[in-house]
Here is the input.
Amino acid sequence: MKAHAISIIRTLREAGYPSYLVGGCVRDVILGREPADYDVTTRATPEEVMSLFPETYAVGAQFGVVLVPSPDKALTMEVATFRRDEGYSDGRRPDSVIYSQGCA
Here is the structure.
C-alpha cells in the first residue's frame, strides 16, 4: 500500500503537480504506527489525475476525489485535489467545491 502511494505521488510530481500524503497516515507515522491506509492530495484536477492514471475510478470526481487502483487492482488509493468545500446543506456533502493551488 505504501509503495502504491509513493508511486502515485512520484507520477503526479513528475507531471508537474505538487502532491502529498495526508490524513490518518501522517498521524500514524508521527505516532510510530503502521498506517492502515494512505491518502494523497494534489494540485491536479480529477480530469488531470484520470489522464495520468487511465484506469482511475471517478467515484467522487465532482468533489475532487478519484480512486487510483494499483497495477494488480488489489488496492485503490484515494487522490483528492486541493480544494475548499463550501456549505453542507445535507450535512454530508459540500454544496460546492473550489479547487485551489494549495502549497506551491
In short: The CA atoms of residues 90 and 96 lie 12 Å apart. The first strand starts at residue 19 and ends at 22. Helices lie at 2-14, 24-30, 46-52.
